Each structure stands twice: as structure tokens, then as C-alpha cells.
Amino acid sequence: MEIIMRFIGALFLCMALTLIACENDSGSDDKKDTSDTNSCEPGSTFNADDGCNTCTCPESGKKSEAACTEIDCGQSMNGCENIPCGGTCVTIADCPGVCNAESTCVCEGGELGCPYNPCAGKSCGDTCSMCDPADKVCTETAEEKACNEDGKCGSGGAVICDDPDACEPGTTFNSDDGCNTCTCPESGKISEAACTEKACPPSDQCDGLACGSKCTLVVACDAVCNLKGECVCDIGEVDECEDPDACEPGTTFAAGDGCNTCSCPESGKKSEAACTALGCPPYEPCQGKKCGDTCSMCDPADKVCTETAE
């Protein structure tokens, strides 16, 4: 009987030790699972590492495979940088954003605390008030005030605004087509002016024509195309069509230093020509001249030297 009791006691002891070992193993597994930073509950959401986006845990249970929102965190966090109070900005929340007095991007509709700007939303010349309508203590002066071009509220009489549509009634000005003339009406508005309706010659009539070719102008004169491709009155100066940079391809000409030679390139431009690089002798102002002949101390090839008036 004693032997049986010992056997039963040993059996219970073995079972107890086995149970404890299993519980310890289970605890180790739980600890291992919780320490896995890449694991998540499928279907649940968690914050992305950037701090402003949200991710949804996939069926694999791995955060590294999760799909996340793609909000521009930088724009959200710095949404009011260089934006005045009341200006629009971008918020993380799904709402129209505006900047408040603390340069924080908040949802539109709340109290912003922006300082009163008498010319906010107004154009130059619009009337303004120095007193905030919400300020029940401020008393506005009787002086008429208006917004200037800098967006400041000041004396209305001192404000000058450049109106691109303004003109002096009765005066004339050139039409946009360059050949007709308009008369400023009593309203003083260019947009309401009456203009002549002459048929204007094409502005590109010198395209493809050589300098000196005949063209047509509104004014009565013999018109020709100049080097710039413009149609101008011919004043008889033929030299205007002589391009100082032009040369005949393949020909040679003297370099500016007076001793080297250049070959005209295929482009026909002297400025692109290849020249010899001989060492030129020093400038002699009286070389080849007689006693009493005028001379110059500056070498004609020296573009920096300035001759005295003597």
C-alpha cells in the first residue's frame, strides 16, 4: 500500500511539473509575439512612422506590407510658413484649412485671431476704414480714406493708383495694332475709345527679305527692310544694310590687331572666324609718317586706351 501511495505521489508531482513547464513555454511565446514590431492585427489601423499618415494591417499581419495614406506631412506641418493670417493652407484633417494668428493651419470657420486689415480683399482706390468694425471703442475720423497700391489704408486724396484703362479725355493715343489712332472718350477709359480702322500692313512683311528690300508702311514714305527685319522709311543711307560682322565665306581679312589674318567661316560672320596668332610688333604711332603729321598715342587695336584731347 505504501508503495502505491508513493507511486501516486510521484505521478502527481510529474504532472504538476509538466503543467508548470507548459505555462512557462506559453508565456515565452506570448512575449515573443508582443516583441515583434512588424506584426499587427489584420484589418486594424496604426499610425505610420511619419506621424501623420494611417496604415491598415493586411491579411499577412505584417506592418511592412500594409497600405498607408499618402498625406504630404511636410506641407501639413509647415502649412502656414510664409502665409499671412487668414490665408489658405493644407490640414491633415479633411477640411478647408486657414492660417490663424499663431501661424497654425486650422479648419476654416473657427476664430483665427487675425489682426484687422482695412484693405484685405480690396483694390487700390477702394475706400477703407482704420477702425475694425468689431471694435466698438474705436472712432473713425471724418477724413475719406482709400487703399493704396501697397495695400495700406491712407488719406483718399493722396492715393494714386495706376489704372491701365485710364486716359485723358480728348487726347489721342496709338492703338494696339500700331497703325491706328484712338481718341480718349469723356469716360476716360481706353476700353471705350473710338479708333480709326485702317488696314494695317503685316508686321512680319520683312521676313525672308534681304536688307534694303521694299516694304509698306502706313506713313507716306519709301519703306525698306533694315538689318533687324523691320520695315522703316528709307532715308538714303545705304550703309545701314552693310553688316560690319559679315564676310564672304572662304575669303580672308585683316584681324583687328593689324598684323594677323582671319579666314571667313561658312557662317559668314567675322566674329566666328579663325585667325592667325602671330606676335604683333609694338605699336609705333609715327610709323610711316613724316614730321608734322598727326599721330595717336593709342593703338587703334587697343579698345581700352583713351586718347587725350591734346
What does this structure look like?
The chain has a three-stranded antiparallel β-sheet with strand order 1-2-3, with no helix packed on it. Strands 4-5-6 form a three-stranded antiparallel β-sheet. The longest helix has 33 residues, at 2-34. β13 and β14 (231-233) form a beta hairpin. The model is unreliable at 26-34 and 74-78 (pLDDT under 50). The chain is an alpha+beta fold. It is 12% helix and 15% strand. Among the domains are: 73-107, no CATH class; 117-162, no CATH class; 165-199, no CATH class; 201-242, no CATH class; 244-279, no CATH class. The chain has two helices and 17 strands.
Q: Could you describe the largest sheet, including whether it forms a barrel?
A: 3 strands, antiparallel
Number of E-state strands = 17
* Strand order of the biggest β-sheet: 1-2-3
* N-to-C SSE string, H for helix and E for strand: HEEEHEEEEEEEEEEEEEE
Q: How would you state the average pLDDT, rounded?
A: 78
State the distance separating the first and last CA atoms: 147 Å
The chain-level structural class is alpha+beta
Tally of alpha and pi helices? 2
